[in-house]
Amino acid sequence: MFRTTAAALALTLVLGAAAPALAADVVPPIAYKERTLANGLKVYSSVDRTTPNVTVQVWYGVGSKDDPVGRSGFAHLFEHMMFKATRDTPSETIDRMTEDVGGFNNASTYDDFTNYYEVVPAEHLQRLLWVEAQRLGSLVVDEATFKSERDVVKEELRQSVLSQPYGRLFYLYLPQASYQTHPYKRPGIGSIEELDAATIDDVRAFHAAYYRPDNAALIVVGNFDEAQLNAWVDKYFAPLKTPAAPIRRVTAVEPPRTAPGVYKGYGPNVPLPAILMTWHAPAASSPDAPALTVLDAVLSSGKSSRLYNSLVYEKQVAADIFSDASLPQQPGMVMLGAILAGGKTLDEGEKALLAEVARLRDAPPTEAELTEAKNELVAHKLRERETVDGRAFALGYALRTAGDAALANKELAQLQAVTAADVQRVARKYLTDAGRMTILYQADSARPAGEKDMTPKPPVVASAKYTGPVVTLAPEGARQAPPPVGTPVKPVLPQPVEKTLANGLRVIVAKSSDLPLVSASLTVRTGAWADPQGLAGAMGMTAGMLTEGTKTRGAQQIASEAEALGATLTSGGGQESSAVTLNVMPGKLAPAMAIMADVVKNPAFANEELERQRSQALDGLSVAYQSPGQLAGYAASPVVFGGTPFGQVASGTPASIAKISTADLSKLHGQYFRPDNAILVLTGDITPEAGFALAQSAFGDWKAPAAPAPARAEVNPKAAPRAVAIDLPGTGQAAVTVARAAIPRGAPDYYAGAVANSVLGGGYSARLNQEIRIKRGLSYGASSRLSGMRTTGLFRAVAQTKNESAPQVLDLILAELQRMAQAPASAEELKARKSVLIGGFGRELATTDGLAGILGNLALYDLPLTEVADYTGKVEGVTAAQVQAFSAKEFAPDGVSVIVAGDAKAFTEGLKQRRPNLEVIPAKDIDLEAASLKK
Question: Model pTM?
Answer without folding.
Answer: 0.94
